[in-house]
Amino acid sequence: MIKTERILHLKSFRGRKVRVVREHYLREEVPCYSAVCQAGCVNDGKVLSGELTHYVVPDASVVADYLEVLELRELQGIVFTQTAFQAVQHNKGRSRQYNRLRGLLKDPRHNCVLFANEFQEYSYCPREKGESQDKWQTKCVYSAAVWYHDHLAGLKPIVMITEDQAAVTQYSSLNAGVYVISIQDYLQNFWPDLQAAHELYSSISQALQEKGSEGTEREYAEHLPAEVLEAGIKSGRYVQGILNVNKHRAQCEAFIRIEGSTNKNTDLNSDVLVCGVKNRNRAVHGDGVVVELFPKSEWRGKTTALTEGQGEEKTGEEAQSQPMPTGRVVGILQRNWRDYVVTFPPREETQSQSRNSQRILVVPWDQCIPKIRISTQQADALQDHRVVVRIDSWESTSLYPNGHSVRVLGRAGELETEIQTILIENCIHVPPFSEAQLREMPVISPEKPWRVDPGQVVVRRDLRDTHLVFSIDPRGCEDVDDTLSVHTLPGGEVLELGVHIADVTHFVAEGSLTDLEARARATTYYLADRRYDMLPAVLSANLCSLLGGVDRYAMSVLWELDARTLAVKKVWYGRTLIRSSYQLHYELAQALLKGENAEVPELTQLGTEEKDAKLAQLTQALEMLTHVARHLRAKRDREGALELEGVEVRAQLDEEKNITALVPRQPLEIHETVAECMIYANHWVARKIQESFPQQALLRHHPPPRQEFFCQLVDSAKARGFFCSTRSNKALADSLEQAVDPQDPLVNKLLRVMATQAMSNALYFSTGACSQDQYYHYGLALDRYTHFTSPIRRYADMVVHRLLTAAINLENAAGHSKPSASNKELEEMAQHINNKNRAAQQAQRLSTELFQCLYFKDKDPQVDQCCVADAVIYAIRANGMLVFIPQYGLKGAVYLRNREGQVVTVGQDGSCEWQSGSVQRYPERISTTCSRGTSTFSLFDHITVRISVQASRYHSVSLHMEVISNKPHQNAEQQPPQLQGRSQLVQEVVRLAEEQAHDKAARGPKFSKEEREFCQSKSPNLYSLLEEVRELALIDCSKTNSM
Ligand SMILES: [Zn+2]
C-alpha cells in the first residue's frame, strides 16, 4: 500500500475557500468486477459479464447529465468510476441523480459496477497544479479506462464516453484498444437501432442547451432554507405534509395531508387548504412540503359542487364548505417526481409558443400535474401522440417546470397507447422477463420433462399415496396454487384437514433475479383485457401449478380436528410432495355435493364399479369439507365476523372491477367452503410466524372504519326507512341483512357498496411496527391474518412462505433459522407491496373505464339505443347527483344545473329539458324550480340517462351522462343479463382495436407477438375476481378523491 497526499479545495461554513491536505492510500488490489479478470481479483457481488463485446466507462459529466441513457437495460457492461460517482454525490443540485445512480449500482438486473479508481495504485492520477476540476476528473476516468484495458490483458475493448471534445482529441489515439468518443457517437456506432436511447439523448441535450436561457423575473417566492424549515416545524410555526392537488380544480385547490406526529400544532386535525398556484409555490402533486398557516380570518372553505368529469367521492367527507386551515407552501422537503405521460398542444398553439425557442408547453395526462416545458424539434411529428416526460427543475423564475421527453408511447386514443399510459401513470413496470431471469428457471421440454428431485423426496413429507388431494377452481383455470385434502384418521376420532399451496419459494431463491423482479412487481396485474404475471409462465402455469395427476412440491398446513367438536388438536406445517387426483371446477364440485349426475373427467376411462367407488370417495371428501367449513364459518360469525363477505365483495366488484357480473348472483356454497379453508390456513400461518417472530413477521390487518365515513350509508338507509347500526362489524352486517327492499334489489346492493366504501383498506405490516391490538382484521373478525395461499400472484405470500420455512427450521433447530429481513426492512417491504396493490387496483379501474369509453366511442347517443339506459341515484350533490347504471356497471355524475345557469325540469310525461331556474338540495333529494314548476329527484329513484363520450385531447376520455326522463328506462326489463353485457363490451372493444391495429400496422410502436406471449395473456380476469371472493379479503377501494 502506498501513502500519498491528496489536496482538496473545500468551502468553509462561512464561504471561505480552504485547502485541505488528506492522506490518501493506494493499493494494488482493487477489484475489477469483470468475469474475464486475468489477475485473480476478489470479485464479490455484481460482476461484468464476459460475453459483452466491450465495456463502457462514462466520464463524470456524462454520468451527471445522461444517467437516464445509461439506465436503459440494453446498455450493459458499464464501469462507473469512483471519480464520476463522487462528482455526482458532491454536486448539491444533483441529489436525485445521485439516488438514481446508487439504485442503478445496487440493481442486479443491470450489468454495471463501481470501480474505486482513486484507490488503485496504477490508475490514480493526482491533480496537478492549476488543473481544473473537470480536466482532472476526465483524466482520472481515462486513466481508469486504460487500467481496465491493461488489467484485462486487452481481452475487452474499452470505450470511454465524454462530452468534452478536447478530451476526445487528446486521448483518442493514445492507446490502442481504448476508445474515447462522444456519447452521441457511441450511441450511433454501438446502438444504431436503439431508438429509445437516441431520442432520450437528443431530448436531454436539448434541455441542457436551453438551460442557460432562463428568464430572470421572479414568478414565485424563494423556498426557505432547510434549517429554517426544520426549526419552523419544530416550533409549530410550520406544518409538513404531502401535497394533494384536487384534480377537478387543479388550478385552484390543493390540500396538504398532515403527517400527525411530526406536527406540534395540536388544534390542527384536518388537512390544510392551499389556494391557487402561487401559494402552491412550485410544489407538484405528491411532493413532501412545508406550509405556513394563514391567520384564521383568511381561512377558506373547499368547494362541494359537482364539476365536469367528477365521479366518485368518498362517503362522509362531503362536509359543508366551512372555513378550514389555509396556508401557503414555504419549502419543499422531498420531490416525488415520477415519469409523466403528456400530450402536445395543437399545432396552432405550438407555433405561437415556440416563436423564440424550441420550447413547448406539454399537458400531462394526470390533471393534478402542471404543464411542463420541454425542448424539442419534434412538436410537429408528435401531434396527437402520447409521450413520457420527466421534470428536471422548477426555478422561481419559471412559471412552469422544465423537463425533457423520454420516449414516445404512440397515438393518443389507440388501445395500446392508452393501456401503456395507465401503466406508466401508476408506476407499473412490467417489461418481458429478461433472458438472465429466464435462465434461472428450470429447463423443461416435452423430451426432457421436469422430474421430482430424489433429494427432495427425502426432505419432504410424501403425501402422494396417503392423501386424496384435489383442487377446486373456476372453470378453465391454468394456475392452480391451492389444493385441499380431508379424511378421517384410523380410529375415527380425528379428522385431518389439509391445505396444500404451491411451493413457489423452492423455485425462486431469495435475492435471485426472478425474486427481485417479482418483488418489484409485488403482484400480478389484471387489466380489463389482459394480465401481467408476477412470475415467468414456466412457474405460474406449469411447475407451481398444482395440476391433476402430476407430482408437485407444496407447502402444507395439516390440522388434526376432533371428529365430533372439530376442535383443533394439532397443527403441522411443512414442505410436502403431492399429486392432485382431481382438478375440479366449482360447478362440478357443487353438482357432486348435490348428488347430481355429473361427469368427472378423471374418471371417464374407468369401469363402472371402480368409477362408482372413486366417485363415492370424492363425494364423501367434499361433504366432509363442507361440514368443516360450515363449522369454521359459524365460529367466526359468533366472534363477530362481518357478514358482508361474498355479497359485499360482489357489490364492490361491480363498481371497481371489470366483468363483475361473471360472479354468480347466488354464490355456490362450495365457493365459501374453499374460501373458508384458505382463510383458516392464512390465519394459522399468521399465528405461527407471529409467534416465532414477534418483531418481524408479515401480517395483514384491516383497521375498523372511521365512523364519520358511514354518514352517507346511515342517511341513505334512513331515507328508505331502514335503520343501519355501524356500532360493530356484526351490527353493521345484521343491519345490511335487514335493509332489503322487496320492490328493488338494487337498494340493498347500493347500501352494501356504500358500506364497502366507508371501509378502510386492508394492509400488510410488520409485526414489530404495530402494537398487538392493531393486528385485528375487522372484516374477517380474526386476531391475526396474513396471505399464504396465492404465492404465484402475490409477493406477500412468497415472503410469508419464507417466514414459515424459517419458523419451521427454528422449531427443528435445523441450520439457520432467522428470517432474513429485519422489522424495518419488512415494514418497508409491506409499504412497497401496499403501494403496488393500490396501483394495481387503480390500473384495473382505469382500464375498465377505458373500455367503457371505447365501447361508446363510435355510437351516436342520439340514435343508438345502447346509449340510453336505466340509472339509479345513489348520492346527492349540490348541483346534481351520482348515479349507477346496472346494465353497464357504470357510475357517474348527472348535473341538474349547467354553466349557463339553466336547470333540468321534468314535463308531464317525465321527459326532461333545460330552463333557467334554481336548485335546492336536501339530504336525500334534490329539487329544481323554474317557471314550469318544481321537479324532485330522490335517492334510489330510477331515471333514464343518455350516455355520451366526452373527448379529451390531453386526458383520458370520459363518459357524460344526461338525464332524459325521471322515469325508469322503458326497456329496463328486457335488458340482457349483466354477464353478457359486460363481457361482450370488453370483447367488442378488443376486436375493434385489433381491426384498427391491422389497418395501420405500420404506424407507431406495437407490441410484437412474442412480447405479448411473453408477458401477458389475454384471458379475462375471471380468475382473479373469484380469487378475491375466495379470500374474502375486503378489497381496497380507490381513495384518489378522498379529500
Ligand atoms: Zn481483476
UniProtKB/TrEMBL annotation:
CDD domains reported in the protein's UniProt record: PIN_Rrp44-like
GO CC field: cytoplasmic exosome (RNase complex)
EC number: 3.1.13.1
Domain RNB per the UniProt entry, residue ranges: 460-810
Pfam families to which the protein is assigned, alphabetical: OB_Dis3, RNB, Rrp44_CSD1, Rrp44_S1
Keyword annotations: Cytoplasm, Exonuclease, Exosome, Hydrolase, Magnesium, Nuclease, RNA-binding
Required cofactor names: Mg(2+)
Compartmental location: Cytoplasm
GO MF, one example: exoribonuclease II activity
Any single GO BP term: rRNA catabolic process
Identification of the protein by name: DIS3-like exonuclease 1
Gene: DIS3L
